[in-house]
Amino acid sequence: MTEATFPQCRIVTERLLNPETTESLLNKVVSVPGIRRMVLNGPRLPATVPYGPSKGIPNPHPMRKTIHVGDQEIPLQVHVGTVLLEVESRDVIPALQAAIEPVFTNFTFRIQEGRFMKTAPSTVDYCKYGPNADKEMLGLADPNSKSRPIIIQGIK
Fold this sequence. Notes:
Blueprint: E1 8-13, H1 19-30, E2 35-41, E3 66-69, E4 72-75, E5 82-87, H2 92-100, E6 109-114, H3 123-129
Antiparallel strand pairs: 1-5, 1-6, 2-5, 3-4
């Protein structure tokens, strides 16, 4: 079980972010020290059509691109709407707000504090990772995904 004392926050925007804005936002977020975990939420962007008469054919979506965060290339699998963060202390949140303000020049955003990520293992975590799962992965499992979460080097 992870420590329940770590504050959590989420970045909520007026609209879904395009890949360029997402890349800029994540590079600013990664530059702030004290971030433990991060989750990108939004509608899934499947590589192939998942159902219907076109099932299985390629799904050319303009928002599914590979972005560069720090030294890594990350394929976007969701159209980012919110970013959930777990931070070391509340002192990180004002620094985070100051760092990401330049990204949002055309529309507004809010940083909300609360409890947004699981802090105890769920059945999905147990099924996906087993009884000896990494404690930092708790609550990050997507039951519909066949891949593991992407770990961005440099967070912490």
